[in-house]
Design a protein that fits this description.
By secondary structure, the protein is α+β, with helices and mostly antiparallel strands. The chain has eight helices and twelve strands. Helix 2 (57-73) crosses helix 3.
């Protein structure tokens, strides 16, 4: 028996690109993302979309993703600990709370209101056995299991009106946060901001669009060079196929468990 069985490791490709509407007006990309691979094959990833109406939306988004990831990464989380649902939930909740506080503290330090740094936030923790997500506002998190089932872990929160969403700094944001845990043999995960919702979701049935995700999952599973892979993802997000459908900022984090 071959004891040197290779354990699949996470491969991750992620990018945030400026939407065509922002390029025209020379505005900054309001999206941000951050991810980290912790020991024991635990992946943490976050994406955020700073509100277009917020003067410092980009700052809010960057602080939110970095704080949330750091809050989890310093806890030395093990896969054994993540076997407990309560631990997973408190891990995500604590990180979202830390992100909210960091954004509010930054606002105070800059003599701004918290809503000037308004941002959405999606935070994911994934291992080969479980994926868990907490989300405030728009965007989408998905996972695929070893049987090929593709599940939307969260759905866009669009409020009562079109283009209305909840932000990390909104009153009652934490009470309205979506949280989802899925225990399966996980092979792929994905996180994206609302700019890609139209392409990534089959709105009629409210399910993730397999033709959008499956080629991306294959792409990341087969990546050898991270720099080249990121360049290809940025190119894809700027391609006509995408920009014809959306002029918004775009963030996409895609991960696959692959044999080293």
């Amino acid at each position: 028996m071959n004891m040197s069985k290779q354990i699949p490791q996470w491969r991750v490709v992620a990018a945030s690109v400026c939407g065509t509407s922002h390029l025209k007006t020379k505005q900054l990309c309001q999206d941000a993302h951050h991810w980290q691979l912790l020991s024991d094959n635990v992946l943490v990833a976050a994406a955020a979309d700073g509100a277009g109406s917020a003067s410092q939306g980009k700052v809010g988004a960057m602080i939110a993703v970095e704080t949330a990831i750091e809050n989890i990464s310093i806890k030395e989380v093990t896969r054994d600990a993540l076997a407990d649902d309560a631990i997973v939930r408190s891990l995500l909740t604590d990180a979202i709370l830390a992100a909210k506080k960091a954004v509010e503290d930054e606002a105070a330090a800059c003599d701004k209101q918290p809503q000037d740094l308004a941002t959405t936030l999606i935070l994911m923790v994934a291992t080969p056995e479980v994926v868990a997500v907490s989300q405030i506002g728009d965007g989408l998190a998905v996972a695929k299991d070893s049987m090929g089932n593709l599940l939307a872990l969260t759905m866009p929160d669009s409020g009562e009106y079109i283009n209305e969403t909840t932000f990390l700094t909104s009153p009652g944001a934490l009470e309205t946060a979506q949280m989802r845990l899925w225990r399966e043999d996980i092979v792929n995960v994905g996180v994206l901001t609302d700019g890609l919702q139209m392409l990534a979701l089959n709105m009629v049935v409210g399910e993730p669009h397999k033709p959008f995700f499956f080629p991306l999952f294959d792409f990341v599973a087969n990546t050898q060079d991270k720099t080249v892979a990121k360049e290809q993802l940025v190119k894809f997000l700027g391609s006509e196929r995408i920009t014809q459908r959306t002029d918004d900022d775009l963030t996409l984090i895609i991960a696959a468990l692959s044999k080293p």
